[in-house]
Specification:
With 199 residues, this protein is an alpha+beta fold. It is built from eight helices and four strands; from the N terminus they run H-H-H-H-E-H-E-H-E-H-E-H. The protein folds into two domains: 30 residues, no CATH class; 135 residues, NADH Oxidase. It is globular and about 80 Å long.
Length: 199
């Protein structure tokens, strides 16, 4: 009986090869452009003083603008801090601008966001984090260094930048031409088995 099923299995295998239905299993999967960018991007903590071009800023802002948000409520705003005066003012709220020629500040409005009905979870900060991720990845795609900064005094930012009234600052992104390579921690990651599970 075993030989019979072995023969059926062989025939099935030959049939799959004959009509190329097993082709996806036989061909190597080419790494996507996204995966290449995601792997090569690193937290840059030193920048050249080369200013960003308007085209670069606009590309980054467009990537942020089209980021998804819960129910498409878009309770997020982005400010580009780039004048010497504004950058100096921002240094009063954080030690981590790293000499970047521009810092993208992402803020959100909780009262404009989707709220999960089961437990009242407000999605504003999650939406802002998605926007921030788009900023980082587009900056990287443009060959620019960037870093996610969460260490800042939100009250100081709001006091020094009245333009941000009504919004809660969530994250800052110094962006510019990198002046340093990835640090030693960049490649440290959990294994796939530690990081993920199939249920």
């Amino acid at each position: 009986m075993s030989k019979f099923w072995d023969k059926i299995s062989d025939i099935t295998h030959l049939h799959k090869r004959a009509n190329f239905s097993d082709l996806p299993d036989r061909l190597p999967v080419k790494e996507s452009t996204f995966m290449t960018i995601a792997k090569e991007r690193y937290s840059c903590r030193k920048f050249k003083d080369t200013p960003l071009t308007e085209a670069q800023i606009n590309h980054i802002l467009e990537a942020a603008r089209i980021a998804p948000s819960a129910c498409n409520f878009q309770p997020v705003h982005v400010w580009v801090v780039k004048s010497p005066e504004a950058l100096e003012k921002l240094k009063g709220a954080t030690d981590y601008t790293y000499g970047a020629p521009a810092v993208f500040v992402v803020g959100c409005k909780a009262d404009k966001a989707w709220v999960r009905k089961y437990d009242g979870k407000n999605g504003a900060e999650i939406d802002a984090a998605i926007v921030g991720t788009h900023i980082m990845l587009e900056a990287s795609a443009l060959g620019l260094g960037n870093v996610w900064v969460g260490s800042f005094d939100p009250a100081k930012i709001k006091a020094d930048f009245p333009e941000m009234e009504g919004y809660e600052p969530v994250c800052l992104f110094p962006v510019g031409v990198p002046a340093t390579e990835a640090g030693p921690n960049h490649a440290k990651r959990q294994s796939k088995e530690e990081f993920s599970s199939e249920l």
